[in-house]
């Protein structure tokens, strides 16, 4: 089974195109797990209506108030931890229609299955050959690249180039081994970094697949505040850098 974990805050306008594109792109059985993080624009009702119309299996969890992306992802991963089988696949993607679901098949093909070796997680990357990002502000682009450069310096030898992309596929078993969600602490967008750190710390093999992202398709206002986010990245990165230093000193 494939689980699409979508964290949504005031994304009612994007629900129909996102659900429609997932159904069009995915031929295997899938379930959409939508965590509505305190929306006040009817996101949950729209999701239920569209899922019925498209005959999509939907699991809906609502937060009574907005708690942040990290909390929404943690809620979704807690549900998956209780309900998914080790062989299941988890896809995380934005619920704002900027992540093309047709990219998912190529990402899943890089996962190891059965006796076939492969990755434990695959990131849709804007920074590998064939990837690109259009329609995004210069400042946001600079921060994304700077954040990825900083994290690559901490985890030298890692194959990851796009640390801040939330468009990913995971083996459910790899998430459990890494302690996701029980070890998650980040509340905001930096949760994406935290998850990668936990995976790398558990020995997971992480690959990437090209992402062609068009941010102009986004219908809702951005919830990302760039300067606070930069400090979030630094906090999470420093936390795991100190962990690495401590672990190496013990060895």
Task: Please provide a written account of the structure.
The protein has eight helices and nine strands. The protein has a single domain, classed as Spore Coat Polysaccharide Biosynthesis Protein SpsA, Chain A (Alpha-Beta Complex). Helices cover 43% and strands 18% of the residues. It starts with a strand and ends with a helix. The strands form two sheets. Strands 3-2-1-4-7-5-8 form a seven-stranded mixed sheet, sandwiched between helices.
Give a short synopsis of this structure.
The protein has 251 residues and is of the alpha/beta class. 43% of the residues lie in helices and 18% in strands.
CATH superfamily: Spore Coat Polysaccharide Biosynthesis Protein SpsA, Chain A
**Strand portion:** 15-25%
Strand order of the main beta sheet, please?
3-2-1-4-7-5-8
Overall radius of gyration:
17 Å
Strand elements, count: 9
- Mean pLDDT comes to 84
User: What is the name of the CATH class?
Assistant: Alpha Beta
> What's the number of structural domains?
1
Helix fraction, binned, reads: 40-55%
């Amino acid at each position: 089974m494939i689980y699409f974990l979508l964290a949504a805050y005031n994304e009612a306008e994007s629900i129909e195109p996102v659900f429609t594109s997932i159904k069009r792109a995915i031929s295997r059985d899938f379930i959409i797990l939508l965590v509505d993080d305190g929306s006040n624009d009817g996101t949950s009702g729209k999701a239920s209506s569209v899922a019925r119309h498209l005959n999509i299996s939907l699991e809906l969890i609502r937060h009574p108030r907005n708690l942040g992306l990290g909390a929404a992802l943690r809620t979704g991963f807690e549900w998956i931890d209780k309900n998914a089988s080790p062989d299941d696949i988890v896809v995380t993607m934005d619920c704002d229609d900027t992540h093309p679901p047709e990219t998912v098949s190529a990402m899943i093909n890089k996962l190891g299955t059965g006796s076939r070796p492969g990755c434990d997680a695959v990131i849709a990357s804007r920074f590998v050959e064939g990837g690109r990002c259009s329609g995004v502000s210069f400042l946001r682009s600079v921060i994304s690249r700077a954040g990825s450069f900083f994290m690559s310096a901490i985890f030298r030898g890692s194959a990851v180039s796009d640390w801040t992309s939330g468009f990913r596929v995971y083996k459910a078993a790899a998430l459990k081994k890494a302690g996701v969600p029980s070890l998650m602490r980040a509340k905001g967008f930096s949760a994406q970094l935290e998850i990668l750190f936990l995976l790398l710390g558990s020995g997971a093999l992480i690959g990437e697949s090209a992402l062609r992202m068009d941010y102009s398709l986004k219908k809702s206002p951005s919830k990302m505040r760039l300067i606070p986010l930069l400090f979030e990245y630094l906090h999470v990165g420093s936390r795991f850098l100190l962990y690495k230093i401590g672990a190496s000193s013990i060895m």
